[in-house]
Amino acid sequence: MRRHPDLVPLSREHHAPLRLGRHLLAGQGRDDLAQMLPSLSAHFRHEERTLLPVLEAHAEHALASRLRGEHETLASLLAAASRGECMAQAGRALIDHVRFEERVLFPCLEALFEETVP
Predict the structure, then answer these.
(1) Which of 10, 25, 46, 71 could form a disulfide with 91 if both were Cys (CB 3.0 to 4.6 A apart)?
(2) What is the C-alpha to C-alpha distance for residues 22 and 36, in angstroms, rounded to an integer?
(3) What DSSP element (H or E) covers 67?
């Protein structure tokens, strides 16, 4: 499925976190995580700045809450994983979050974008 042009950059940014998630599941990737933490944090902030207002404006409060909550949980888990703690749990959460965005959140947003186009 082709992504809405506004979502393509965010979708492309998901490739590296998926790979990182797999490495963390295997108990590896701690060095990669240290390098990726700043970009992951920036990605979360960008999504919250751009996607949350769209969701809230269309009364998609449950999705907005889930996005916000998963970002908070991931920030904590990834910080712990960077210290060598709960790496598999962080990896699973990261993979599940990307899948949620690609399979649930982005299709919903694309439908909302289509509704607003005359």
Answers:
(1) 25
(2) 14
(3) helix 61-82
In-domain check, residue 1 = no
Tokens of 86: 């709960």
Domain that residue 25 falls in? 8-113
Residue 116 has pLDDT above 90, yes or no: no
Domain count for the chain, please give it.
Answer: 1
pTM: 0.93
Radius of gyration for the chain, computed over Cα atoms and rounded to the nearest angstrom: 15
CA dist., res. 57 & res. 92, Å (int)? 31
Contact between residue 29 and residue 82 where contact means Cβ atoms under 8 Å apart = no
3-state secondary structure of 44: helix
Q: Residue 64 domain-assigned? A: yes
What is the rounded distance in angstroms from the CA atom of residue 91 to the CA atom of residue 76?
Answer: 12
Write down the pLDDT at residue 118: 53
Structure tokens at 96: 């599940």
Token pair of 74 as six digits: 């991931």
Q: What is the mean pLDDT of residues 90-117?
A: 93
